[in-house]
């Protein structure tokens, strides 16, 4: 467990940041009045998500591997963080759905039918619901976390330098 202390810390930080992002979306009206812009602006979440993952990997490099980390060590650490985030995601989705913004699903269902994305309320409800978002969040978190780690580690890993 001591070996995973940094991964646990950053998975929790990421999850809290996700909740703060959802609160920000709600406060700015993206779950209500400005829901038409939600589909575009919610993608900006990638910016803090990438930053948090990079900070986590740098933390692991500095404080666990004493400043020298291989690509594989970083990749494994990032995948572990991603798995932990995926495990926590049903809780963060529950908090988002039932505490932070319970009006989001009814609003997005109604608006998606009005705009013709779905023909009926039932079709929209099949997409916009807690269980579907839990699945999407867990799978998406695993995939995006792994891809982000794979790319970030290109820049973070310690290159072997020949001594002169």
Automatic annotation (TrEMBL):
Q: Where are the transmembrane segments?
A: 7-24, 39-57, 69-88, 138-158
Which InterPro entries does the annotation name? DUF4199 (IPR025250)
Q: Which Pfam families match?
A: DUF4199
Q: Which domain of life is it from?
A: Bacteria
**What keywords are annotated for this sequence in UniProt?**
Membrane, Transmembrane, Transmembrane helix
Q: What is this protein called?
A: DUF4199 domain-containing protein
Q: Which organism is it from?
A: Lentimicrobium saccharophilum
Traced from the root, the source organism's taxonomic lineage reads: Bacteria, Pseudomonadati, Bacteroidota, Bacteroidia, Bacteroidales
């Amino acid at each position: 467990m001591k070996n995973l202390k940094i991964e646990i810390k950053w998975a929790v930080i990421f999850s809290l940041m996700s909740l703060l992002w959802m609160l920000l979306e709600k406060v700015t009206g993206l779950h209500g009045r400005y829901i038409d812009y939600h589909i575009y602006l919610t993608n900006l979440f990638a910016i803090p998500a990438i930053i948090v993952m990079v900070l986590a990997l740098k933390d692991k490099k500095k404080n666990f591997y004493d400043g020298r980390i291989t690509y594989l060590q970083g990749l494994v650490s990032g995948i572990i963080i991603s798995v932990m985030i995926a495990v926590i995601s049903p809780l963060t989705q529950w908090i988002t759905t039932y505490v932070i913004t319970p009006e989001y699903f009814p609003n997005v269902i109604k608006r998606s039918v009005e705009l013709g994305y779905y023909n009926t309320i039932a079709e929209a409800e099949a997409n916009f619901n807690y269980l579907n978002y839990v699945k999407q969040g867990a799978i998406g978190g695993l995939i995006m976390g792994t891809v982000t780690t794979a790319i970030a580690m290109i820049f973070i890993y310690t290159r072997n330098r020949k001594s002169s």
